[in-house]
Amino acid sequence: QILPVESGGGLVQSGGSLRLSCAIPESIFTTNNMNWHRQAPGRERELVATISWGGFTNYADSVKGRFTITRDKVQKTIHLQMNSLKPEDTAVYYCDFWSRGKQYWGRGTQVTVSS
After folding, report:
1. What dihedral do alpha carbons 13, 7, 29, 46 form, nearest 10°?
2. Rounded to whole angstroms, how far apart are CA atoms 44 and 52?
């Protein structure tokens, strides 16, 4: 099964930073928006950040000013720079995108922020 692959998660103290990456499989090409979602235990999955092919970005209110999403078209990756992390940012982070009518989700990467 072809899936995007997330990386960069880990354990960090409150106020720290992490940079997540998501690699698009070589066999897939998309010019659609790419997204980062997250899901904390016992909570619904929520959209964190979106980036268009043209570089337009949008963020959840809870992460504005702290998170930055970027897209590398040549390397076919997206990144999520997360600064000033808070314990409430603890979740599994997933990247996803649509290509040719199909939505692709990665398996996620765990981010844990200790207080």
Report:
1. -40
2. 24
Q: What is the pLDDT of residue 29?
A: 83
Query: Which three-class secondary structure state does DSSP give residue 87?
Result: helix
Query: How many CA atoms lie within 13 Å of 10's alpha carbon, on the beta-carbon side?
Result: 11
8 Å CB contact between 96 and 35: yes
The answer to whether 38 and 46 have CB atoms below 8 angstroms apart is yes
> What would you report as the CA-atom Rg of the chain, rounded to the nearest whole angstrom?
13
Q: What is the pLDDT of residues 40-98, one digit of tens each?
A: 999 999 999 999 999 999 999 999 999 999 999 888 899 999 999 999 999 999 999 99
Tokens at 113, concatenated: 């922020």
Place of tokens 């989700």: 105
Q: CB–CB of 100/2 below 8 Å? A: no
